[in-house]
Amino acid sequence: MSTTTIFIVFVIIAAVIAAVGIIVVASRRQDADGAVTQGELDRGAKKADQAKRKAMAQASEASNGSVATATMVAAPAEYVEDKPRVDVTADEYGVTRRKFFNRAIGLVFGLFMIQFTIASLAFIWPKLKGGFGSPVSAGSFEAIKAEVIQGGTVIPKFVAAAQSWVVPFELEELPGSSYEETPFVIAGGESDGVGLMALWQRCVHLGCRVPSCESSQGFECPCHGSKYNRHGEYEDGPAPRNLDRFAVSVNPGGELIIDTGTIVQTARSKNKTVGYPQGPFCVG
Ligand code: FES
Questions:
Q1: From the CA of 223, how far away is ligand 1's center (Å)?
Q2: Cα(182)–Cα(213) distance, integer angstroms
Q3: Where a domain ends, among 129, 149, 175?
Q4: Whose CA is nearest to atom 1 of ligand 1?
């Protein structure tokens, strides 16, 4: 099950829980007959009223000479007083403390679930709309390959949607390299031994954008001078590792797919796969 599917299921479950919570809170505002008691007495008040009436009836019986028990005689004086009953209308009674807390809890819970749902959708949105963070099509694999290798010079192609530099990689360099365990960072090359690799443009030191340098045939960070060869392997400066790269593949339509949701980090390469520099540096 993909991450996106898991999040969608999670959001649906959260929404169902929110709906059940709201229904439960709302149902507490109904009496035993199911009638909504908006503005009416709540069950606690009705129960107290019934108990009071019962006690008054028993006290009345006792005072009329019928069978009296110790309990009846001991009924509170307030029950036997012949006070005139004053009926309170629903409007006068208003919102009880219990109703107020029920509604407040329902409101807070509902707001929390709405916020949670929005945050979850915002988190997975890049994957849903197919932007950075999901697989991105860079275009025709063969066209890109012809573009990045011109004569003996490599001219990396920048794919903005994937924030990546696409460079060629000779498959004969794979054994013993930093990518031997992760060959999925190289796409194609079955016919002529040259595949393509997508390097994340972000410098692994402090995140500056790293431009390519045609003269040195590598990448040189303008912020603090980290340098990487054209396969994105660390060569110099404060960068702690090679440039990060993405999983790549060629789809049935012949397009190079850069999966920007799968980032591969590698330590500084011990066995470099390409010579560097091959000319003057761009950054001193
Ligand atoms: S951000 Fe690139 S070297 Fe510091």
A1: 5
A2: 26
A3: 129
A4: 206
The reply to whether 13 and 50 lie within a common domain is: yes
Atom of ligand 1 nearest to the CA of 237: 3
Residue 69, CB half-sphere, CA atoms under 13 Å: how many?
4
Same domain? For 232 and 114 the reply is no
Say what the pTM is: 0.61
What average pLDDT does this structure show over 105-109? 90
Q: Is the pLDDT of residue 75 over 60?
A: no
Q: Which domain holds residue 247?
A: 135-264
Quickly tell me which residue has 């008040």 as its tokens: 45
Say if residue 11 is in the same domain as residue 125: yes
Q: Could you tell me if 60 and 146 lie in one domain?
A: no
Q: Which atom of ligand 1 is nearest to the CA of 238?
A: 3
DSSP secondary-structure letter at 202?
A: B
Claim to verify: residue 61 and residue 140 sit in the same structural domain: no
- Convert the pLDDT of each residue in 135-144 to its tens digit: 999 999 999 9
Ligand 1 center to 220 CA (angstroms): 9
In angstroms, what is the span from residue 206 Cα to ligand 1's centroid? 5
Distance 222 CA to ligand 1 centre (A): 7
Residue 279 lies in a domain: no
Neighbours of 199 (CB within 10 A): 25
Ligand 1 pocket mutation pick from 200, 201, 203, 268 by most atoms within 8 angstroms of CB: 203
What's residue 91's pLDDT?
A: 72
**pLDDT(250) > 60:** yes
Q: What is the pLDDT of residue 162?
A: 96
Q: What is the mean pLDDT of residues 41-54?
A: 76
- Residue 150: burial class (beta carbons within 10 Å; 0-12, 13-18, 19+): exposed
Q: Please tell me which residue, 253 or 50, carries the higher pLDDT value.
A: 253
Q: How far is the CA of 110 from the centre of ligand 1 (A)?
A: 45
